[in-house]
Amino acid sequence: MSVPDRSQAISAVETLLSYIEGEQADREGLLSTPNRVIDSWEEIFSGYKQDPEKVLDSTFNGEGYDGIVLLRDVEFHSTCEHHLQPFKGRAHIAYIPTDRIVGISKLARIVDLHARRLQNQERITKGIADDLEQFLNPLGAAVIIEAAHGCMQCRGVMKQNSIMTTSAMRGVFFEKSEARTELMQLIRSAPLSR
Ligand code: ZN
Questions:
Q1: How sure is the predictor about 99, in pLDDT bands with cuts at 50, 70 and 90?
Q2: How many domains in the chain?
Q3: Which CATH number characterizes residue 135's domain?
Q4: Are residues 40 and 77 in the same domain?
Q5: Average pLDDT, the chain
Q6: Which of 7, 95, 180, 189 has the most beta carbons within 10 angstroms of its beta carbon?
Q7: Residue 143, CA distances (Å) to 3, 28, 41, 75, 122 in order
């Protein structure tokens, strides 16, 4: 399928607005809406332009550190590929380094790389774990994601408070229940005062 240009994308949104029965697509409040929708798409779908290898390329000597590195409560916002509805939540990302550790902000950026695409939660979870495994070569990698889905909240079954949890466990986190137990204790431990 050929890629439409920006003006074609804007007119497609205009068509969708005029499909809403009873709405006036040419009223003042909606005049710039198609433009703004496409602008917002640049942001919410910016993950396609990012390369995980480049995001995870700044690593440092771990100086023998061989424990769990956990970044928890990484908030993210994504778009469900089935309904184009937002879903949002938080990710907990962990790995056990072999010899290299990665800059901590890079772990947050790898979440956004996957979240800012048309997605399902399972694919984000697996994608982050795959990238950690491939580019950090850790002893183990773990990703746990909890999210609330707009397509469940505002349409269909209309469930406001249901949270979906997904996890991907690799290496020692997959093989050793002790590693998983320690990880879960770290995730559940009392947060620092905020
Ligand atoms: Zn959906």
A1: confident
A2: 2
A3: 3.30.1130.10
A4: no
A5: 95
A6: 95
A7: 34, 45, 26, 13, 11
The set of residues, in sequence order, having a beta carbon less than 8 Å from that of 77 and lying 6+ positions away, is: 44, 86, 87, 88, 115
**Is residue 1 included in any domain, yes or no?**
no
Q: Which domain holds residue 32?
A: 6-44
Q: Cα of 122 to ligand 1 centre, how many Å?
A: 12
Catalogue the active-site residues: 80-83, 121, 149, 151
In terms of domains, do 104 and 15 share one? no
Beta strand 100-102 with 164-171 is: unpaired
Torsion-angle region of 146 (φ positive above 0: left; ψ -120 to 50: alpha; else: beta): beta
Q: What is the C-alpha separation between 143 and 131, in angstroms, rounded?
A: 11
The pLDDT of 144-164, averaged and rounded, is 92
Strands 118-119 and 69-80, sheet pairing: parallel
